[in-house]
């Protein structure tokens, strides 16, 4: 079914121009602090890890340093593991889960893998609890050459020197009720297309790469997360957010073709986590813990395969 959904910016059927973009941007006011919530925690990690500023977002009066946290005992012969959070700034547990993993568990892998963690790829959007960046561009559709998104381009520059050595990339995301109430209607309005409603899955799920599927790996992550929070069931059509469920809690996308973050390298093992923070069966702490469990299970799996 296709329905018209009212969105307060633009004219139905007509894509946004500069005036609509300016109107949208003016409504995006900061609701929380990247410096207090993220940068302050990153600074505390400097005692145990190498911390580098890998870029800086420039949106006029709004500028944001971008930070990556790396293993201090970097050894070229070890496999690289990349963890990213906050590609969509409003997906809070992706950011907090990445930081929690660093603080509580990253040391367990010292001397076994080279870790690179970018905990908040999109700080402008983090502060405004937004999906898009300041140009109304989705960074998680922009990981491609000549990217239109500063956030995506900066991350691609960060990983370029070691991208061929990345064995595993875990990209931490959420699916929220606002995906349906705000962000999908906004997308339809921005692009001048009809809004097509869909259901929000209740629970955790993963997105595998349809062009490089790793079913056993995905199931190992699902099994670990199931001990922390519930796994999203398929809907009546056997789908999650419009994609067929290929195994418990797993769907597939063509990651590179869509310009998704999880394919920013050619890693053999990739997964995108999707936590559901609006469930009555999950707390913010559970959502953060689910992200941590996913990262740990993913690393444990690839180390076991390598060993």
From TrEMBL:
Q: Which cofactor does it need?
A: Zn(2+)
Keyword annotations from UniProtKB, A to Z: Hydrolase, Metal-binding, Zinc
Give the source's domain of life in one word.
Bacteria
InterPro entries membership: AstE_AspA_cat (IPR055438), Peptidase_M14 (IPR000834)
Task: Report whether Zinc shows up as a keyword of the record.
Answer: yes
Q: Which Pfam families match?
A: AstE_AspA_cat (PF24827)
Question: Where would I find the Peptidase M14 domain in this sequence?
Answer: 31-307
Q: Which family does it belong to?
A: Belongs to the peptidase M14 family.
Query: What name appears for this protein in its UniProt entry?
Result: Peptidase
Species of provenance: Pseudoxanthomonas gei
Per the UniProt record, the lineage of the source organism begins with:
Bacteria, Pseudomonadati, Pseudomonadota, Gammaproteobacteria, Lysobacterales
């Amino acid at each position: 079914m296709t329905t018209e959904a009212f969105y307060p910016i633009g004219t139905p059927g007509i894509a946004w121009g500069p005036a609509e973009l300016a109107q949208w941007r003016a409504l995006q006011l900061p609701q929380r602090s990247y410096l207090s919530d993220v940068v302050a925690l990153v600074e505390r990690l400097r005692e145990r890890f190498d911390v580098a500023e890998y870029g800086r977002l420039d949106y006029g009066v709004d500028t944001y340093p971008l930070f990556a946290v790396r293993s201090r005992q970097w050894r070229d012969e070890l496999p690289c593991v990349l963890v990213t959070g906050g590609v969509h700034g409003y997906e809070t547990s992706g950011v907090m889960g990445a930081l929690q993993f660093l603080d509580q568990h990253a040391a367990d892998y010292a001397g076994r893998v080279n870790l690179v963690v970018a905990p908040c790829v999109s700080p402008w959007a983090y502060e405004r609890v937004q999906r898009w960046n300041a140009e109304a561009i989705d960074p998680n559709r922009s990981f491609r050459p000549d990217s239109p998104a500063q956030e995506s381009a900066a991350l691609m520059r960060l990983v370029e020197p070691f991208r061929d050595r990345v064995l595993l990339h875990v990209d931490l995301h959420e699916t929220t009720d606002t995906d349906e109430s705000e962000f999908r209607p906004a997308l339809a309005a921005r692009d001048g297309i009809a809004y097509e409603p869909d259901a929000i899955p209740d629970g955790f799920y993963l997105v595998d790469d349809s062009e490089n599927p790793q079913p056993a790996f995905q199931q190992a992550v699902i099994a670990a997360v199931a001990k922390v929070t519930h796994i999203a069931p398929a809907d009546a059509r056997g789908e999650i957010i419009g994609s067929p469920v290929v195994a418990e809690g797993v769907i597939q996308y063509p990651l590179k073709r869509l310009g998704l973050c999880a394919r920013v390298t050619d890693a053999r093992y990739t997964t995108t986590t999707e936590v559901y923070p609006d469930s009555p069966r999950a707390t913010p702490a559970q959502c953060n813990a689910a992200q941590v469990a996913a990262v740990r299970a993913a690393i444990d799996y690839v180390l076991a395969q390598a060993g």
